[in-house]
Amino acid sequence: MVRLKFSISLNYVIKDSTADFIFNLHAAHTLNQTVVQETLYVSQPLPLHHVTDHLGNRFMRLRASQGPMMVRYEATVDIAQVFSPPASLGEAPISQLPMAVLPYIYPSRYCQSDQMTMLATREFGHLRQGYVRAQAIHDWVQANTKFTSMSSNSSTSALDTLGQHVGVCRDFAHLMIALCRAVNLPARFATGIDYGADPALGPTDFHAYVEVFVGGRWYIFDPSGTAIPMGFVRIGTGRDAVDVAFSTIFGAVTSEPPIISIIALTEPGAPWLMPFRRTDALSTAGEHPM
């Protein structure tokens, strides 16, 4: 088990009389992630509307008034992690996949898997099915894409990244997901905060990673290679980035870069581990396939 404490500060200026926001920045409620403590502060005195979906994603909606607004969220979470030998994890035929998994074999807005079938079949179709093949796709994406800050924008898709060979974590994730789905491997997009990223990459930021359904469970992959999967706090899970944006804004608004911090907590006699890199297959999604 890992215990992580983090904070997120977001600063906006609303230009018109009002603007609507949908936030997805709370730590997700899942079978394997428990929110031990959390606080939320919104500088404007506004009614806040909260809803949690079937994946544990926690959305907050508000209408802000003209002027500055700060949103600050802090939480401590315990994450129970499952480790498995990679070679033991096989693929299930489409006919045997749980219904909750089926949405993640289809193309989506940023993951045009239907346009990558020939490439994926040529590169990965002959490989042993299961985690081993997902790992090969992960390695291919890393080898063919260079992590480059500010190299993409909110409209960059997996096809764009495939052609440009550069991107940030979001782009690596979309490309891996598209290639997995192109060979019928269910894959989905996850967002969070990551402990252990290289400080040379810049200030701590939101992180995007991939989960692939093999061996009856969702397993984590980080194709960008910039972080330690044991140190991922789950915030959002969906088909691609469009499902789990940390902030969706409707109106004339300016914003500053998010200010994010995260630490790992441990103490003598406590069950919490410091995150570290390991070669086992890692899952934090629980046994239910949702």
Outline of the structure:
With 290 residues, the protein is mainly beta. Helices cover 15% and strands 38% of the residues.
What would you note in describing this structure?
- By secondary structure, the chain is mainly beta.
- The protein has two domains: 2-78 and 246-265, Sandwich (Immunoglobulin-like), CATH 2.60.40.2250; 82-243 and 275-283, C8orf32 fold (Roll), CATH 3.10.620.30.
- The chain has helices spanning 117-124, 131-144, 158-164, 169-182; strands at residues 2-23, 33-42, 49-52, 58-79, 82-84, 146-147, 166-167, 187-194, 206-214, 217-221, 232-238, 247-250, 253-255, 259-265, 281-283.
- Strands 1, 2, 3, 4, 12, 13 and 14 form a seven-stranded antiparallel sheet that branches. It has a four-stranded antiparallel sheet with strand order 10-9-8-11, covered by helices on one side.
- Helix 3 (158-164) packs across helix 4 (169-182).
- The longest helix has 14 residues, at 131-144.
- The radius of gyration is 19 Å and the shape is globular.
- The chain starts with a strand and ends in a 7-residue tail after the last strand.
